[in-house]
Amino acid sequence: MMQKPLLKLALATSLLLGAYLGAPSAAEFKIAVVAPQNGPFAVLGDQVRQGATLAAGKLSIALIEIDESCSEGSGKAIADAISAAGATAAIGFLCSESLKDALPTLRQANVPALTLSVRWKGLMEDAIKEGSPLFRLAPNADQEAAKLSDVILRDWAGSAVALLEDGTIRGRELTEAIRTSLEERGLKPAFVDTFRPGQEQQLTLVRRVKAAGITHAFIGGDRGDVAVIARDAKSEGLSLTLLGGEAMRAADEPVPLEDGVLAVGLIETPQEPAAAALVAELTEAKITPEGYVVPAHSAVTILADAWGISSAMGTPVADALIGTTFETALGPVTFGEDHELTESPYRLLEWQGDRFVPVPEKTQ
Description:
Blueprint: H1 4-12, H2 14-22, H3 25-28, E1 30-35, H4 42-59, E2 62-67, H5 75-84, E3 89-92, H6 96-109, E4 113-115, H7 121-130, E5 134-136, H8 143-155, E6 161-165, H9 169-184, E7 191-194, H10 203-211, E8 216-220, H11 223-235, E9 241-244, E10 262-266, H12 275-284, H13 293-313, H14 317-321, E11 325-328, E12 331-334, E13 346-352, E14 355-358
Parallel strand pairs: 1-2, 1-3, 3-4, 4-5, 6-7, 6-8, 8-9, 9-10
Antiparallel strand pairs: 10-13, 11-12, 13-14
């Protein structure tokens, strides 16, 4: 594996390498875009293809589109298709069912894969043990709870904090992980409760929270439940700061979310330094920067830079991915030795008007 200082030096010359990409790479460098083309996840697959196509077009990179059915046992055929197409790398892989069975073949072919979605920690741990060149351009399963805990400890110290969960497996496990993290670091929640999800009103819960003197609450539940709780708290005259997780990225209905509700989630819009230019390109192409559009765009540019580095230095693309800081539409991205993002991609967001906006970094 190459030394990290050399990688950073090589990345500093990426503009020159971009010129190299423009000629021979068009024939040599191919990226497989693995994403659903049919069924309920096709809309997500379209986001992946839109972002990847926009980036690849500017870099003269060939894309091979491969359908991802997300069914058990489908990964081997996907990996065979990637190998047969002569792809240098692959992006997408929105489903663990596809990814886990594809990895052995991708490992044998030495084809790096960047998953934009799969959170499963065990899958990555097994991939590292087996030497598979899998990289995760997404958070892992622990990072959501970690970010939520950090926000609560940083911003809510000294407040009366409640942890409320909806009784589902996901809501319970996320809330319990936060509770454990908080208590290990000296903050004991003042109130912990479970509510019934999907109700038209949550007045009973809100009144219990009010009676307990709670001013801040994390809610391990869906956006709809958070919206109902926020509305009912307002109607009861309770000034209650609410915080939710990634599940808050959902339709703003049937009850609109109140301004000021917080969430920890992923930023979907282009980030500096190239944000303005990319927004203009997306607007011209009539593409909405949502879901996997910007991550897919970033994945292509990351692989383009890594390909340029590996070509210049005679090393595998997977080696070039480790330890190098890539400037992308998501902001700076670095993969560690564990092939995970070295910085959590989660950010604190606040609902304002009709969208979540990032809370300024100085208070992150």
